[in-house]
Amino acid sequence: MDTATADTEATTYVVALPAGMKLLNANDRVHWRTRARITKALREAAAKSARDAHIPPMEQIRIQAVLHPHDKRRRDPHNWYPSYKAAIDGIVDAGVIPDDDGKHLISIEVVLGAPVRHTQIALRITPFGVES
């Protein structure tokens, strides 16, 4: 079975952080203590969401990081990378993958999702099949 077929047949798991959580934007200039507090909250929320979803441990994954804004204005979803990074660290804490290095986290795709009432980010996690 080729990799493309394996990826389309794989189960996708979703780690959605609570809507309305304070997020980190690469353009923000916040005090280091505030940034650390927000990072910790995002990381813990992602770990809890992954555990609650009963996501099994995997050796390699692909992630689609989705920003669901609160309105339809233009925005660059890549600017929320600090929030995605904290959430990815949370799924590592939950045991979904051993580490978020290049061996285990094969790729990250950042996309803009549909607007929701309160801004939210979600990670769509897909196992990456290793050819034997």
TrEMBL record:
GO terms for molecular function: magnesium ion binding. One of its GO terms (biological process) is DNA repair. This is Endodeoxyribonuclease RusA.
